[in-house]
Design a protein that fits this description.
Maf protein; single chain; alpha/beta; about 25% strand; seven-stranded mixed β-sheet
Length: about 200
């Protein structure tokens, strides 16, 4: 069975990606499964630069077909922040809680209708044996609430409200979130690449 390595140490991401690709004939493994302690410095100016760097570094070092992503939250009222700094918005190595608290502080007094936001995800699939690389993207629009809601998800999910559903991403079960989220939409495109190229 073809093996796909997820180049992430984020358990939430690994869980979401594994669930979304579970219907393919793939053995999905994470860096943790391999006992690898690979840390890639995400110093790119764009999601694509970071995702590509992770995919290629991890792929070359492990000699495995590798999938990496970089994603972020872009809030219009903050000029697109936190963007590529989403994971380290409050400080380097910040917790989800710290990042959410900083975001809420910056948006204090901003009315709901001006809290428009977008989640963006860029994924890169890299095959070190063929030096093959494929890039896909996904996004979802919503608004930032003034307090968290929901027990699911991770990151900014408890603050990201989708008007059409009347819920935050953190209030959606994983299967539902994967069908509409920025990462879920990117994974739909990745699935097609995997099926076409590797017949999985």
């Amino acid at each position: 069975m073809k093996e796909l390595l997820l180049a992430s140490n984020n358990l939430g991401k690994v869980r979401e990606i594994s669930q979304a690709l579970s219907d393919l004939k793939l053995k999905i493994v994470s860096l943790r499964d391999l006992g690898e302690r690979i840390r890639v410095e995400e110093d790119g100016k764009t999601y694509w630069e970071n995702a590509r760097k992770k995919a290629r570094e991890v792929g070359f070092r492990t000699k495995k077909l590798t999938l990496a992503d970089d994603s972020g939250l872009e809030v219009e009222a903050l000029g697109g922040l936190p963007g590529v700094e989403s994971a380290n918005f409050a400080r380097k190595g910040a917790s989800d809680k710290e990042n959410n608290e900083k975001l809420l502080k910056l948006l204090e007094g901003v009315p709901f209708e001006k809290r428009k936001a977008r989640f963006r995800c860029v994924m890169v699939l890299f095959d070190p044996f063929e030096n093959f690389e494929e890039r896909v993207e996904g996004s979802i629009e919503g608004f930032i609430l003034d307090q968290p809601r929901g027990e699911y998800g991770f990151g900014y999910d408890p603050l990201f409200f989708i008007p059409e559903l009347g819920k935050t991403l953190a209030e959606l079960p994983l299967e539902v979130k994967n069908s509409i989220s920025h990462r879920g939409r990117a994974l739909v495109a990745i699935k097609e690449v995997l099926k076409r190229r590797y017949k999985v």
